[in-house]
Amino acid sequence: MELFMSLTIGVLFAVGVYLILSKSLLRIILGTSLLTQGVHLLLLTMSRLKTGAPPLLGEKADAYVDPLPQALILTSIVISFGVTSFFFVLAYKAYQKLGTDNMEELRGDEHE
Amino acid sequence: MSLLHAAILLPFILAVGIPLLSSLLRSAHTGWFVLPGPALLFAYFLSRIPAVQEGQSITAAVRWIPSLGIDFTVYLDGLGLLFALLITGLGSLVVLYSIFYLDKSKEAVDRFYVYLLLFMGAMLGVVISDNLMVLYGFWEFTSISSFLLIAFWHRRERSRYGALKSMLITVFGGFAMLAGFILLYLMTGTFSIREIIGQADAIANHALLLPAMLLILLGAFTKSAQFPFHIWLPDAMEAPTPVSAYLHSATMVKAGLYLVARFSPVFAGGAEWFWLVSGFGLFSLVYGSYRAIKQTDLKALLAFSTVSQLGLIMSLLGFGSAAAYYSGTGDYQLYAAAIAAAVFHLINHAIFKGALFMVAGIVDHETGTRDIRKLGGLMAFMPVTFSAALIGAFSLAGLPPFNGFLSKEMFFRAALQMLRMDIWNMQTWSVLFPVVAWTGSVFTFLYSMLLLFRTFTGKLQPDKLEKKPHEAPLGMLLPPLVLGLLAVVFGLFPNLLAYTLIEPAVASILPRELSAAGKFKVDIYFWHGWTAELFMTIAIVAAGTILYKLYRRLTVLNRPLLRRISLNAAYDGGLRSLEMASQRLTNAYMTGSVRRYLIYILTFFIVALGLTMIGSDAFRFDTSGYADMSAYEAAVAAALILAAVAVPFARSRLTAIILTGAVGYMVTLFFVLFRAPDLALTQMIVETVSVTLFLLCFYHLPKLRREKLNVRFKLTHVLISAGVGILVTLIALSASGSRAFDSISDYYLAESYNSAGGRNVVNVILVDFRGFDTLLEIMVLGIASLGIYALIKLGADSGAGGLQTPAPRPAKQTSIRLPASNDVILRTVSKGAITIILFYSWYLFYAGHHNPGGGFIGGLLTASALVLMSMAFGMKLSTRILPVDFRRVMALGLLVALLTGIGSFAFDAPFLSHAYDYFDLPLLGEIGLATAVLFDLGVYLAVVGVTMTIIYTIGRDI
């Protein structure tokens, strides 16, 4: 399972990076979104998969899965939601103001 | 903490308080509030004299970074006390002087005093600290405050130039000194100056001693403006005159002398130290005095004079270092007299040069110019100023009966003593010492007389002056007169200083010699007979007078030296070419293309991380503990990979967004599979809200274009992406294969119920164990939402961004228009759905502590219910149904969370400690209530507020 997951994570990262390197703002934002998913899965995989019951003590199980990455990921999901929203609005406003969403055309001044 | 610490901190505290105080009492000049500070400190240090005189030193330590050997240790001995008295005494006079020099209504006096106080505190710190790192910190602080003070009139280009120059040169020296300190630490294992001095014998033959010496001397020479680093001092004269009098003649530039004196016990006794300190000192003495003759600006003349006088004291410290070699023999007292002369001249120089700078300030203030070609005949208008100038200039020239005469005689005696040295090649060179000393003193005599007589005698040139000259106000005259009086008093009664200040200071500079011979004798006599040094002084007066008469005719005296080739040109040119080179280097890779930068970053990421992993042999794959895998899971993974890979190929925005959404939902499924119910819930809701947001935002963005790239570019991108992907895969494999140390998760699992009263460990970690993280996290969210709000609302005033391209508004529609046919069904269904979702979200919020759920999930679900409402009924109607300002809700949530945290202070517990208990409530049965729930409520409110602020802001704009 870990092997397969690692592969999945690798694909998510590769596609995310490829999208980030493109010109269009929308693709870049989608790329960061995919990267975030990759990171979440990476965190989860690192702590070993399916080693026990969900970390709810009411389950009365012998072993629980690691709760720490879950807490980290939960934080990350919410934060990335905020950040992605910000990106969107930034992209949207940039397009509205400048009339393009092409990164190559969004360069600053030569002497800025 | 001791009184000494308080003494260092007092100016800093005053610096903070002064602007507040002066804004309360606007009518008075800020200087009057500052004045008691240094005066009080001066009195305090005076009261320490008897104790220090008896050989006691005062030590106190405050632990700071004990693990690195860095503590705020203060140490007051003779040398430190002498400097502390100079700093606070002259500081008081300068503050008094500046009250009349700086016009309250025209200048930013508050800022001036803040900088001045910062300097005073830092300088006290330099001379009282025992720890090298603390000393270094204060040392650089003096450079910075000097920079700020030189650039006080920052609208003048010359001021900024001078400030930058002084900063670059002194900070460069400071860095060298820091390196020297670290070398000392490597040799001795301590940062304490006293302990290093204690080990001086042990490290005398250490290989690192010479580099350390050179580096520390570099720091001292740059700070004390010794040739060739003196070039910053004349440019520093752009500062207001009180600053020049204080920092650039009396105190800061003497920090280098302090450093040399302080480290004499460590380094003295060797040929290198002797030759470097004496050599640079003597050369600066002659060079500075020669250059001073050529100056036409009063302050520039005084600046070069300071270079020369500092050189004199420096060379005396060098002469005196021979005493360490002759330690234990009968000769040492003769060499040690040079150190006494250095200390005495240090005091005298501060007195007469301070007076002269203040006189120059008065002349500038009352006539509007400092150019001696325009001045003359001022004696009749400013008799009091003239008196002060006369005393100062005669003392500087070394004429009796002023204090400068005595120390100059002692300087000659020390130089003549050098003739008797027969070590370190001195047999060959020693004859140069008295000759150079005498030549420098002739020049000194000459420029002192030029300064005095060309300003105050001769013909008045009223047409060249900006103002009609008149005497300065009493407050401005008082400080130079006090200094002039001191010059006379110390000239006539030098023994007032001999055993109070000079002997204790000498004792700190030559501690080993004294322990052998008991007390050091300081003999200063006003009349010392017809000695060789007296004849030298007479010859100086004769030669100086002749040169004065010939001054106008000899171009070698009154023309600038070497116009083209100069150290300043080298400095300017060097700085310019450095700037150009770095500009060229930067332009070579900073092309303005963000993608190019990303490629740099990612390539570095791949190479650095890959090499580190290979280097540390971290790629280990241990498949033994891997979890098994069902076909269902394989299918989910395959779907995820397919969706992800398809995104770059999507032709329309909508497809790309939906594919990304699909990836998100697949990840949700994985969360379910991997026993993470909280994550699955959160991810699901976030994904839903996100997709709504995506679609909302990209309604108007242009169609996705096929990326038209040449193959080479595309190949690079594919290679980099593949590299990252492969690397991350390998890292994921090796990370899940091995574990370097035990996880802390077991603690959370064990303590979640016992200490925090919650069964949902993830939620307990979020709200309790790591509550602080969560608090900051919701703040970040709040900031993001406010950022979005600002982007949209503030950007609305068009042109605010100053963008050149006129924006073609792509929008054809200005509001969300949902397809009409769906309206009725959607509305009917949503009424029920919204209610259910809302109640379910509250259940999730409450259940969170024991079961999946919590503030984040509850908040997001509530928000999605509200989003559904506004979609079904329109933005207008829903704001009417729910007239809430969601930014307030967010603020309220943050406040609740913060107050919960602060509340624990009331129970004497650290920030964000939680308590819990179980209660029997009617109907609901036994119920656990924890303060963590209150915190979670804050999270809930903040998340609802943030999400709705984002959605509403965007929705309204589009």
UniProtKB/TrEMBL annotation, chain A:
Endpoints of the signal sequence: none
Statement: the UniProt record of this protein carries the keyword Transmembrane: yes
InterPro entries: CPA3_antiporter_subunitC (IPR050601), NUOK/Mnh_C1-like (IPR039428)
Domain of life from the UniProt record: Bacteria
Membrane topology type: Multi-pass membrane protein
Keywords attached to this entry: Cell membrane, Membrane, Transmembrane, Transmembrane helix
Principal localisation: membrane
UniProt KW Transferase keyword: no
Family: Belongs to the CPA3 antiporters (TC 2.A.63) subunit C family.
NCBIfam families xrefs: PRK08600.1, PRK09094.1, PRK12660.1
Protein's name in the database: Monovalent cation/H+ antiporter subunit C
Source organism: Paenibacillus darwinianus
Automatic annotation (TrEMBL), chain B:
Residues in Na+/H+ antiporter MnhB subunit-related protein domain copies: 825-949
Pfam families, sorted: MbhD (PF13244), MbhE (PF20501), MnhB (PF04039), Proton_antipo_M (PF00361), Proton_antipo_N (PF00662)
Subcellular location: Cell membrane; Membrane
InterPro entries: CPA3_Na-H_Antiporter_A, MnhB, MrpA/MnhA1/PhaAB, MrpA_C/MbhD, MrpA_C/MbhE, ND/Mrp_TM, Proton_antipo_N
One Gene Ontology term, aspect cellular component: plasma membrane
Domain MrpA C-terminal/MbhD stretches: 639-703
Keywords of the record: Antiport, Cell membrane, Hydrogen ion transport, Ion transport, Membrane, Sodium, Sodium transport, Transmembrane, Transmembrane helix, Transport
Domain of life: Bacteria
Topology in membrane: Multi-pass membrane protein
Entry's transmembrane regions: 27-46, 82-100, 112-128, 166-187, 202-222, 273-290, 302-326, 332-363, 375-397, 431-453, 474-493, 530-551, 597-619, 631-649, 656-674, 680-701, 713-733, 774-792, 824-843, 855-877, 889-907, 927-954
Limits of the MrpA C-terminal/MbhE domain: 717-793
Family recorded in the similarity comment: Belongs to the CPA3 antiporters (TC 2.A.63) subunit A family.
NCBIfam families in alphabetical order: 2a6301s01, PRK12573.1, PRK12645.1
Protein name: Monovalent cation/H+ antiporter subunit A
Lineage: Bacteria, Bacillati, Bacillota, Bacilli, Bacillales
